[in-house]
Design goal:
This protein has 919 residues and is of the alpha/beta class. It is built from 29 helices and 26 strands. 41% of the residues lie in helices and 19% in strands. Strand 16 and strand 17 form a beta hairpin. The longest helix is centred in the middle third of the chain and has 36 residues. The structure holds adenosine-5'-diphosphate and magnesium ion. Pathway: Carbohydrate metabolism; hexose metabolism; Carbohydrate degradation; glycolysis; D-glyceraldehyde 3-phosphate and glycerone phosphate from D-glucose: step 1/4.
């Protein structure tokens, strides 16, 4: 029959068209997420402020209040912390007098609060405080989990004085009025979210939820219903026609201010198509259904998918076909013209394979029709077409969500669980099959597992409340744990003051011994003036690598060649003779390679350990740091040790003219480019600084004229106890596990050798408190130095996404959930921020002293900086500069990155030294 064929065709959407629908949905979703276009979007993408899904550890008693069309439902849910395997639920349903929905807002909330009181009267709980989750299925402008302004009533509600107000506050106030002081409204939610929350499978969170058709609330065993003896729970239509929600990347939810982690977004996709986007697939039957509905031109998508409407679509198709004389030739169709006489439930019965035909006959006869066998067959075909169309459209919407998630998480393949609720899905396996297979076709890069949800609104609301509570408790504990690492402005000023005091002590001849900051004279009295020329050898010892260099200082440029040599730990921590012999071997190897054996070049030796310098080429090692401990060196002149080794090795072509610290080298090499560079800073394996001090202030050196570079050795700041207030338990642990316990305490808060260790100890503490990795102990994380400082850089880099974090943790055999990653990032941020701020407090003391030395109101100065941590960390330099600006507002400080300061700088010191002596 061509007419029937035409009707069926109109109700069938081709795969190409479904792709198109999916793409339109994705476009609308993006529009809803963006701040600029949110207001005009049909798919509103409302933020829910639910930033986590249940992890199974949720525990306790929770109260849920759900406002339904004609009832208020209260639930008492007990979660046992057992992975939510067996939540216990009791509930009660209160009929709501109709006048309440039309009267004053206050009366509505008073009524709800009275229901709560009556319900609680029959329940005993050991808990002092009872958290309440409020299911409020109206459009709200939510700004927090417990803050939501009602935008507009719908579903026949018209209470005065509620629109524009915070409904959480209204409920809380009404509950207080009932003297229920122990009940706290902690979360407000829409009904979709609950579905997502109840579908979590252990270890595999459910991150998408769909509602298709009505959710009939009490799907729970009768015994849980507290309605009095023999009472039957009424069936409550709880859900909307169709809607969905999913966990979106928080930074993309522009309407909410969260920027890290994820947030559940309520798509409100029922409104999809209201601006005409679906017009090319609408049939005349859809148009009739819309015209007869209470909200014409609204919720066009829902009217094709929601179970409220499927019966109606079939009814209009039947009317049209009867008018074309291809159906019900022998009867009057008058009864068919009444709205809602054909229920969706009947449509679902009709399409069943076994009794479908009989059901069709029965349903049609009930309408006074006398259907033939053929009529029944055609009716069944039409019903199938309408239900299938709903399923395919739903699949297009789901595919849009999945692809959006997959793209925004930058995944090649998304594997995800999807909770589904609603009578279309539960009542009809074919719907689920179509949904699953078409979704697979439209989102081939995603693997979605559909999970049926039962009573998502009730139990789910309890889960949301529980999760909110869990997050709040965890937040408090995390804040408590990290609090000692967070430095206030006053703390930083105190540290700056302490550094200043230690500097003064260190400079004074009598007080020097009492200072933790040694303030060592370097005998470097000038920075380069640009007239330096010649070829030099340089050694760089004291960093991660030992290097030998040749530096050729010409008129316009400096050219360098270098080799990196390994110093094995056995040599670093062996005898001094072996160490210096090894160094000479490396020099000889280098000279051979560079064909420099015949020349005697001046040599600058960058030796980055604290030395008492007695002249430019005379430096007594005070103590080893940074993992070195070679014996027989402390108390010796390192130039002498080098010369003795040369002698042992019969190498007579060495002319050591200067020993410099790497800070000095850095300052010198930057000074070659910028004459204002009078400070050197290192933030690499260790940390240290030097600056140009007035010679007259240096009590440990004779002379009143000019300036001398002071190697502060600030890494030891605090070794005399002056920073004890600021050390956290984690810092103490890190220190206890080093070879120089109690030494270099400031350095151990700041530099690359230690930041990863601090983070590692914090992570272990978080695991122990079950705040991380679900409390699972992880042996690899107990290994010293396994968490490298360079991880902080990758983890904190914006835009790399949390997959990066997950990958790093995976390498450490840690199975990190999304929230674990967010927390690990927070820990890294706290540790690196503190390091940068401490460094800034130290520098503030230096620049302020220089400014005062020179009697200036404003000082403009440049800091030459070296060190991989400073250079590679994404935020360190910015935090350092901001804090310094804040602490020393009268100093205008520029930072100049040194390129190989320790190599070039040593040569330049040698060059400056030779400037006077050679022609
Ligand atoms: P040194 O100070 O020994 O001369 P570097 O300046 O290269 O050497 O610093 C080495 C330190 O930098 C190491 O302790 C390491 O932890 C740290 N580091 C290496 N890569 C990075 C990175 N990408 N981000 C932050 N720190 C890093
Ligand atoms: Mg270095």
């Amino acid at each position: 029959c061509p007419q029937v064929q035409r009707a069926l065709q109109a109700l069938t959407i081709s795969l190409d068209m479904l792709w198109e629908v999916k793409e339109r949905m994705q476009r609308d979703m993006r529009k809803g997420l963006s701040r600029d276009t949110h207001a005009e979007a049909n798919v509103r993408m409302l933020p829910t402020y639910i930033c986590s899904t249940p992890d199974g550890s949720e525990k306790g008693d929770f109260l849920v209040v759900e406002l339904c069309q004609t009832h208020v439902r209260t639930l008492w849910v007990t979660l046992l912390g057992d992975g939510n395997q067996s939540p216990q639920v009791m509930y009660k349903i209160f009929e709501m007098p109709e006048h309440i929905t039309q009267g004053k807002g206050e009366e509505l909330f008073d009524f709800i609060a009275q229901c709560v009181r009556e319900f609680l009267a029959g329940i005993s709980s050991p808990q002092e405080n009872i958290p309440l989750g409020f299911v409020f299925p109206f459009t709200c402008r939510q700004t927090q989990l417990d803050k939501a302004e009602l935008v507009a009533w719908s579903k026949g509600f018209r209470c005065s004085d509620v629109e524009g107000k915070d409904v959480v506050q209204l409920l809380q106030a009404a509950i207080k009025k009932q003297e229920l002081y122990h009940v706290d409204v902690v979360a407000l939610m829409n009904d979709t979210v609950g579905t997502m929350m109840t579908c979590n499978v252990a270890g595999k969170p459910c991150e998408v939820a769909l509602i298709v058709g009505e959710q009939w609330a009490p799907c729970m065993p009768r015994g849980w219903f507290l309605g009095g003896a023999g009472a039957q729970p009424p069936l409550l239509p709880a859900g909307s026609g169709t809607n969905s929600c999913f966990m979106a990347e928080a930074e993309q939810v522009e309407m909410a201010e969260e920027s890290s982690g994820r947030m559940c977004v309520n798509t409100e996709w029922g409104y999809f198509g209201d601006n005409g986007t679906l017009n090319d697939i609408l049939t005349p039957y859809d148009q009739h259904v819309d015209e007869e509905s209470s909200n014409p031109k609204e919720k066009r998508f829902e009217k094709m998918v929601g179970s409220l409407y499927l019966g109606e679509i079939v009814r209009h198709a039947l009317i049209a076909l009867a008018a074309e004389k291809v159906l019900f030739l022998e009867s009057s169709i008058a009864a068919l013209k009444t709205k809602d006489v054909l229920k969706t439930q009947q449509v679902l019965e009709i399409i069943k394979n076994e009794d479908g035909m009989a059901e069709a006959k029965r349903a049609l006869e009930a309408l006074g029709l006398r259907p033939t066998e053929r009529d029944c067959c055609r009716v069944q075909q039409l019903c199938r077409a309408v239900v299938s169309r709903a399923a395919t459209l739903c699949a297009a919407g789901l595919a849009a969500i999945l692809s959006h998630m997959c793209q925004s998480r930058e995944l090649e393949r998304l594997v995800v669980n999807v909770g589904v609720d609603g009578d279309l899905y539960h009542g009809h396996t074919r719907f689920g099959e179509i949904l699953q297979s078409v979704t697979g076709l439209l989102a081939p890069d995603c693997i979605a597992t559909l999970l049926p949800s039962k009573d998502g609104t009730g139990r789910g609301a309890a889960m949301v409340t529980a999760v909110a509570l869990r997050l709040a408790t965890q937040r408090r504990e995390v804040n408590g744990l990290l609090a000692p690492l967070r430095l206030s402005r006053a703390d930083l000023e105190r540290i700056q003051g302490l550094m200043r005091r230690e500097m003064e002590l260190g400079l004074g001849r009598e007080t020097n011994a009492n200072s933790s900051v040694r303030m060592l004279p370097t005998y470097v009295c000038g920075t380069p003036d640009g007239t330096e020329r010649g070829d030099f050898l340089a050694l760089d010892l004291g960093g991660t690598n030992f290097r030998v260099l040749v530096v050729r200082v010409g008129q316009d440029s400096i050219r360098m060649a270098s080799e990196i040599y390994v110093i094995p730990t056995t040599i670093m921590q062996g005898t001094g003779e072996a160490l210096f012999d090894h160094i000479i071997d490396c020099i000889i190897d280098f000279q051979l390679k560079q064909e420099l054996m015949e020349e005697v070049l001046p040599l600058g030796f960058t030796f980055s350990f604290p030395c008492q310098q007695l002249g430019l080429d005379k430096a007594v090692l005070l103590t080893w740091t940074k993992g070195f401990s070679a014996s027989g060196c402390v108390g010796q002149d390192v130039v002498q040790l080098l010369r003795q080794a040369a002698q042992r090795k019969q190498h007579f072509g060495l002319k050591v003219v200067a020993v410099v610290n790497d800070t000095v080298g850095t300052m010198m090499s930057c000074g070659y480019e910028d004459p204002k560079c009078e400070i050197g800073l290192i933030v690499g394996t260790g940390t240290n600084a030097c600056y140009m001090e007035e010679t007259k202030n240096v009590g440990t050196v004779e002379g009143e004229q000019g300036r001398m570079c002071i190697n502060m050795e600030w890494g030891a700041f605090g070794d005399n106890g002056c920073l004890d207030d600021f050390f956290t338990g984690f810092d103490v642990l890190v220190d206890e596990n080093t070879i120089n316990r109690g030494k270099q305490r400031f350095e151990k808060l700041i530099s690359g050798m230690y930041l990863g260790e601090i983070v590692r100890h914090i992570l272990l503490a978080l695991v122990k408190k079950e705040l991380l990795f679900r409390g699972k102990s992880c042996d690899k994380l107990r290994t010293k130095d396994i968490f490298q400082t360079k991880f902080l850089s990758s983890i904190e880099t914006d835009g790399l996404g949390l997959r990066q974090v997950q990958a790093i943790l995976q390498d450490l055999e840690l199975q990190a959930s999304f929230e674990d990653c967010v927390l690990v990032r927070e820990v890294c941020q706290a540790v690196s921020l503190r390091a940068a701020q401490l460094c800034a407090a130290g520098l503030a003391a230096v620049v302020e002293k220089m400014r005062e030395n020179r009697g200036l109101d404003q000082l403009a100065v440049t800091v030459g900086v070296d060190g991989t941590l400073y250079k590679m960390h994404p935020n360190f330099s910015q935090h350092l500069q901001q804090t310094l600006q804040d602490l020393a507002p009268n100093c205008n400080v520029t930072f100049l990155l040194s390129e190989d300061g320790s190599g070039k700088g040593a040569a330049l010191v040698a060059a400056v030294a030779c400037r006077g002596s050679e022609p």
